[in-house]
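Subject: LysM domain-containing protein structure
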Amino acid sequence: MSAAAIQGQDSRETNDASGALRLTRRGRIVLGALATVLVAGVLALIASLAAPEAMASGEGPNGEQFEYVVVQPGSSLWSLASDLDPSADPRDLITEIVQLNQLDDSSVQAGEAIAVPLRYSDNPLVVSGDELGA
């Protein structure tokens, strides 16, 4: 072997054995994505632990009590919506009532107190939460 070949071989060995980590472009992308996911996970964990818990209350957005309608035997949300506001589309009012009461569907039971939007508080069918003991 020639001296140049031996010298070239030695220099390759020292470069490989130097202990430095060499990342390819793909490796840098993977490492960056992994670091990003890790940081996002830590931030999500911190946000979930630091967030205040939501607490339900019987009060409206301005500290007002909800108004209720007590469901009569044979009544449905459709009939309640029609009785509360005959001029409005019952479907819109039913959607509001379902969301306000967090109902799974539109079925109601007789004697159930259903919260209604505050704009219907002057309707004769509506009773206050104090009258119900809510």
